């Protein structure tokens, strides 16, 4: 009887137990204050590490723990896991394909369209998807590749960036978009911090918030983001410049 | 009316918008995409809900809540260790198979189109702003664990000694 893996959901990457009230184990065991060995074993067996793909499919060759990634080249062809260069990553659990960023050197705008240093404000003119406000157009700040004053198509906001990537194409596709919050959060490796992602597949990930396309239900001045330093989510001001990682595919 | 509320909201600053917030359980259906709408959760004969997308089977409400849209009862609040031990107590009472969800499974319930709770109100309005423990310990601060704030929908962390809600899950039968 195969444990039915939650369809489309990644596991967390947590392969170790948490003690109570404090401390973490190196493996899937746990200590429970005041409890005997049997109770401590049951305590560990109830935790994240005892369940899911991280336990049933822990193949490290295709991503840490239960993660299962495939490298894709700039033309859209699959690559072996040890390929030194790749442009996109396919997550075989969620079915989502992800943009991979090029090396960060602390300077935005000098490594091409997928520069890991490039920053964008949140901007979405679609009234049914933007929470009731378009966000920040960001006409003035030179924080991304190609920015030219007075040319809106070059501005450093999320909406124009998506349009630029789709004009240029990436990994053979022109249907890239800003991920929803749950899509973006599917990349979080909860067993890692600074950054909380598998950097063997997503190098140059920055220790900060990345934009999702999910507006906040009540507050039109903020939008949802994933903090890839620690893995938590929060709604942050739309006029703050943040990195992005585009996605395509998945379910409609 | 809902449309008007949000048109007004859009014109206000964030601070003012917070003061003009619509009542609990109201969703910004005209202006924000759904992430976990009510139709995803199929009622089962035994009173549980199956998420059509993930296949996971959920207790209809966090422990302690019951009734239509979880509007009756008071939520049970436990520290992280007690929350993790609750499924064994249920099994001893003849309800086996339940477990605490990991943080990603728990966050899959979040409907970001809604707030207070960030859940489909037709099913879960009574959950209110309950924070709920996951089975996932936190890596960086080792006295913390992951929980989901169902008020706004964030996945975040807090001290393991804090009391929070419990919402149990199990795999679909093969």
Describe this structure in words.
Helices cover 12% and strands 13% of the residues of chain A. Chain A has 252 residues and is α+β, with helices and mostly antiparallel strands. Chain A folds into two domains: 8-55, no CATH class; 105-252, no CATH class. A four-stranded antiparallel beta sheet of chain A has the order 1-2-3-7, with no helix packed on it. Chain A has a three-stranded antiparallel beta sheet with strand order 4-5-6. In chain A, strand 4 and strand 5 form a beta hairpin. The longest helix of chain A is centred in the middle third of the chain and has 11 residues, at 158-168. Chain A starts with 36 loop residues before the first helix and ends with a strand. Residues 1-6 of chain A have low confidence and may be disordered. By secondary structure, chain B is α+β, with helices and mostly antiparallel strands. Chain B has helices at 2-11, 14-19, 80-92, 103-107, 121-124; strands at residues 41-43, 49-51, 57-58, 65-66, 72-73, 131-137, 144-149, 155-159, 169-170. In chain B, a hairpin with a 5-residue loop joins strand 1 (41-43) and strand 2 (49-51). The interface between A and B is large, with 67 and 66 residues.
- Sheet/helix structural class of chain A: alpha+beta
Contiguous low-pLDDT stretches of chain B (5 residues minimum) are 1-24
Global structural class of chain B:
alpha+beta
Shape of chain A: globular
Task: Quote the beta fraction of chain B.
Answer: 15-25%
CATH topology of chain B: Mannose-Binding Protein A, Chain A
List its traits.
heterodimer, A: 252 residues, alpha+beta, 2 domains, four-stranded antiparallel β-sheet, three-stranded antiparallel β-sheet, globular, disordered N terminus, B: 174 residues, Mannose-Binding Protein A, Chain A, 5 helices, 18% strand
